[in-house]
Amino acid sequence: MIQSLHCHKETPVTPSTQGPQPVPTTETAPYWQAALEGRLKIQFCRSCNRHQFYPRRFCTECLSDGIEWVQASGRGHIYTYTVCHVAAHPAFEPRVPYAIGMVALEEGVRMLAGIVAPIPDRLAIGEPVEVCFEPIGDAVALPMFRLADGESTASPKQR
Fold first, then answer.
1. 11, 54, 140, 148: least surrounded by Cβ within 10 Å?
2. Alpha-carbon distances of 77 from 103, 104, 122, rounded to whole Å
3. Where does residue 149 fall: left (phi above 0), alpha (psi -120 to 50 degrees), or beta otherwise?
4. Which pLDDT tens digit goes with each residue over 90-144?
5. For the purposes of burial, counting CB atoms within 10 Å of the CB of 93, is it exposed (0-12), middle (13-18) or buried (19 or more)?
């Protein structure tokens, strides 16, 4: 189980298995195992020295199978996002409104993930974020992102 890596600093959420669950594959199993351990891992191609995400069996740049898993910094910025005012699944209803977005990591890859924010309508493109992990069961944790400075300073008009 994950300890002290929860996305919600003040009140950690109770793991819930009521919502959709990821199904690890051969390619994604190392990613999900690292997330359960509170680490963000992405792939790196030894042939062309390029990071990639989402997990694949080969490099999408040079087609090499010389792929390895490396620790990501977990830092990046909001590339784009949306605030959901209608839950995409009944398990998400208590979170409304919630934000999901594309996060550009320092390593140069982008990830689609939840963005934890006290006031989702005040997020802004370009804001710095850091990874956090939300347990959604005893065997699964979701990498999500929270604002690096703790709270957005942008007003809705600045977006």
1. 11
2. 6, 5, 15
3. alpha
4. 988 988 999 999 999 999 999 999 999 988 888 999 999 999 999 988 889 999 9
5. exposed
| pLDDT tens track for 58-69 | 999 999 999 999
* pLDDT tens-digit map of 34-45: 999 999 999 999
0.85 exceeded by pTM: no
- Fold for domain 74-159? OB fold (Dihydrolipoamide Acetyltransferase, E2P) (2.40.50)
**Intervals of CATH 2.40.50.840 along the chain:** 74-159
